[in-house]
């Protein structure tokens, strides 16, 4: 067992950890970056990038299928699964390569391999080979897909997103359990690439939408295209090795209690990810934990209590998306270097985007959050994309945008939307939200023609109209339990 001393120890070399390491070094401190798994980050290896590559192939197939509606007839569609997966893996490897180049540039003496756990507040042990004594520690350990033990017992054909991007060919059929962002993005992409896909949703919701109207419109648009079984639970999963190459027998139970057994090449568990905090020995770090075992921390400094421990990225489960991992890592690393003179870092307006079709975005304060923080004090404006000019031109006229504003100040608070170009509309709205614009100021901005943004203007005009009325009228919408 060797002992190493450092000023800052960073656990996890993902996006948050690398960002924390760089910030600590920029703060003039000695830092160590510890990693137990493969380098390359979740985002590049098995997350954002390969999933968007698969979606890009699916969009190409979808465009061909959609073409006849414009009078364009491209001929029979042939999807070569091996070629699809070769591009996904090839481009994925290129993105991972850029991350590995970054790791390569970190001096060898700053990089340590092994699983880290706390022995005391500033004391870590790596596997059985190294003790680290650090003035401050950043926890940037990421998250892991959740697979219930009884599902695992059905064998290797029960998979998570971690396995999908290593396929060398597209399978015949996939059952996707969970209609969160991973389930929808991957389920729709595989469906469009000719895989028989069934999605199982425990409840009636899709992705992170909390606004009941947007959620309903989104669920309807998605259910028009996909085989989604809402209100349906998984009753049992069993390996069915007799079939060609093996299958999984999935038994589901619908809301009426009816059982149905179907066979799939794979079952993709997409029921959420849990932060990697369990094996860290946090009890030895003397940190106060929440009911999920995650250290309590300050969202502006990323400091855990008054300790010299900081947390960032998926590990804290606050906003488990890539831009947040980078921001939180930078703040945590900077403050780990400054400790005890910590200072608040820049936390941006929340923005999440699901790359399904219709795309789904949540900006600023969600409907659910506003029902708590602004009950009776916010108004809603809306637009349907069904008859929105440019959306109809492109035959992408599905979805709805709802925008929220504050009575009195007239300030724009947030939005939920499912619709065309939501990735861009989401940014526009997030920038307005962060700039603390009023709805009136947003309506003073230029809008070209014919563009999807004109739909945003319609929703904002509707919001301005409601903001000019009495508050009571609006909060009827905030029914309990929404
Ligand atoms: C399929 C999928 C698609 C996604 N798509 C998007 C998207 O389009 N846009 C978006 O913004 N986000 C997306 N995300 C989310 C995004 O990938 C994550 O939020 C982000 O990668 C988290 O970064 P991180 O640094 O917190 O964790 P990671 O990159 O996972 O890094 C954590 C590291 O810590 C290491 N580690 C864990 N425990 C220990 C220990 N005890 N000792 C040493 N090392 C340890 C792990 O091995 C890992 O390398 C997607 C995620 C998935 C799974
Ligand atoms: N475009 C993006 O930004 C993007 C893409 C993919 C992943 N991600 C990140 O990855 C995280 C994890 O994604 P995810 O889709 O796995 O999680 P999620 O939390 O978004 O969705 C999980 C879904 O599974 C359901 N569920 C939970 N337990 C279930 C069960 N036993 N049976 C059936 N359904 C069940 C939940 O109700 C929920 O709808 C996301 O929170 C997101 O931050 C982001």
Automatic annotation (TrEMBL):
<feature type="binding site">
    <location>
        <position position="314"/>
    </location>
    <ligand>
        <name>FAD</name>
    </ligand>
</feature>
<dbReference type="Pfam" id="PF02852">
    <property type="entry name" value="Pyr_redox_dim"/>
</dbReference>
<dbReference type="InterPro" id="IPR016156">
    <property type="entry name" value="FAD/NAD-linked_Rdtase_dimer_sf"/>
</dbReference>
<dbReference type="InterPro" id="IPR023753">
    <property type="entry name" value="FAD/NAD-binding_dom"/>
</dbReference>
<feature type="binding site">
    <location>
        <position position="272"/>
    </location>
    <ligand>
        <name>NAD(+)</name>
    </ligand>
</feature>
<feature type="active site" description="Proton acceptor">
    <location>
        <position position="449"/>
    </location>
</feature>
<comment type="similarity">
    <text>Belongs to the class-I pyridine nucleotide-disulfide oxidoreductase family.</text>
</comment>
<keyword id="KW-0520">NAD</keyword>
<feature type="domain" description="Pyridine nucleotide-disulphide oxidoreductase dimerisation">
    <location>
        <begin position="353"/>
        <end position="459"/>
    </location>
</feature>
<keyword id="KW-0547">Nucleotide-binding</keyword>
<feature type="binding site">
    <location>
        <position position="52"/>
    </location>
    <ligand>
        <name>FAD</name>
    </ligand>
</feature>
<dbReference type="Pfam" id="PF07992">
    <property type="entry name" value="Pyr_redox_2"/>
</dbReference>
<dbReference type="InterPro" id="IPR036324">
    <property type="entry name" value="Mn/Fe_SOD_N_sf"/>
</dbReference>
<dbReference type="InterPro" id="IPR004099">
    <property type="entry name" value="Pyr_nucl-diS_OxRdtase_dimer"/>
</dbReference>
<protein>
    <submittedName>
        <fullName>Dihydrolipoamide dehydrogenase</fullName>
    </submittedName>
</protein>
<keyword id="KW-0274">FAD</keyword>
<dbReference type="InterPro" id="IPR036188">
    <property type="entry name" value="FAD/NAD-bd_sf"/>
</dbReference>
<feature type="disulfide bond" description="Redox-active">
    <location>
        <begin position="43"/>
        <end position="48"/>
    </location>
</feature>
<dbReference type="GO" id="GO:0003955">
    <property type="term" value="F:NAD(P)H dehydrogenase (quinone) activity"/>
</dbReference>
<feature type="binding site">
    <location>
        <begin position="178"/>
        <end position="185"/>
    </location>
    <ligand>
        <name>NAD(+)</name>
    </ligand>
</feature>
<feature type="binding site">
    <location>
        <begin position="141"/>
        <end position="143"/>
    </location>
    <ligand>
        <name>FAD</name>
    </ligand>
</feature>
<keyword id="KW-0285">Flavoprotein</keyword>
<dbReference type="GO" id="GO:0050660">
    <property type="term" value="F:flavin adenine dinucleotide binding"/>
</dbReference>
<feature type="domain" description="FAD/NAD(P)-binding">
    <location>
        <begin position="7"/>
        <end position="329"/>
    </location>
</feature>
<dbReference type="InterPro" id="IPR001100">
    <property type="entry name" value="Pyr_nuc-diS_OxRdtase"/>
</dbReference>
């Amino acid at each position: 067992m060797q002992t190493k001393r450092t000023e800052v120890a960073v656990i996890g070399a993902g996006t948050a950890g690398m960002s924390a390491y760089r910030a600590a070094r920029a703060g003039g401190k000695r830092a160590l970056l510890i990693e137990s798994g493969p380098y390359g980050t979740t985002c590049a290896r098995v997350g954002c990038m390969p999933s968007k590559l698969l979606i890009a192939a699916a969009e190409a197939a979808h465009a061909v299928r959609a073409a006849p509606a414009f009078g364009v007839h491209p001929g029979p569609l042939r999807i070569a699964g091996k070629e699809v997966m070769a591009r996904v893996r090839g481009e994925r490897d290129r993105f991972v390569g850029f991350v590995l180049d970054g790791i390569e540039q970190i001096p060898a003496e700053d990089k340590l391999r092994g699983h880290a756990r706390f022995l005391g507040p500033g004391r870590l042990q790596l596997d059985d080979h190294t003790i680290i004594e650090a003035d401050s520690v950043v926890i940037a350990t990421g998250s892991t897909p959740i697979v219930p033990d009884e599902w695992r017992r059905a064998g290797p054909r029960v998979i998570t997103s971690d396995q999908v991007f290593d396929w060398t060919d597209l399978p015949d059929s996939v059952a996707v359990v969970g209609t969160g962002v991973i389930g929808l993005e991957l389920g729709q992409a595989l469906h469009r690439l000719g895989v028989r896909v069934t999605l199982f949703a425990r409840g009636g919701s899709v992705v992170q939408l909390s606004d009941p109207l947007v959620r309903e419109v989104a669920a309807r648009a998605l259910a028009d295209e996909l085989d989604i079984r809402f209100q349906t639970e998984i009753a049992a999963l069993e390996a069915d090795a007799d079939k060609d190459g093996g299958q999984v027998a999935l038994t589901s139970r619908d809301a009426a209690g009816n059982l149905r057994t179907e066979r799939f090449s794979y079952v993709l568990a997409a029921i959420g990810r849990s932060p990697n905090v369990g094996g860290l020995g946090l009890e030895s770090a003397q940190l106060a934990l929440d009911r999920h075992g995650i250290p309590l921390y300050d969202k502006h400094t990323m400091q855990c209590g008054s300790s010299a421990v900081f947390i960032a990225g998926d590990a804290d489960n606050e906003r488990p998306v890539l831009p947040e991992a980078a921001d939180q890592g930078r703040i945590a690393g900077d403050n780990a270097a400054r400790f005890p003179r910590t200072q608040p870092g820049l936390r941006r307006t929340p923005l999440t985007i699901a790359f399904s079709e219709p795309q789904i975005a949540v900006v600023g304060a969600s409907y659910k959050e506003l029902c708590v923080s602004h009950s009776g004090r916010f108004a809603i404006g809306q637009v349907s994309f069904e008859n929105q000019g440019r959306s109809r031109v492109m035959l992408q006229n599905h979805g709805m945008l709802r925008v929220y504003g504050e009575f009195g100040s007239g300030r724009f608070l947030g939005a939920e939307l499912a619709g065309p170009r939501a990735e861009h509309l989401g940014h526009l709205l997030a920038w307005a939200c962060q700039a603390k614009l009023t709805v009136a100021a947003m309506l003073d901005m230029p809008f070209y023609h014919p563009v999807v943004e004109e739909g945003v203007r319609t929703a904002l005009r509707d919001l301005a109209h409601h903001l000019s009325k009495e508050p009571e009228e609006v909060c009827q919408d905030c029914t309990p339990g929404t």
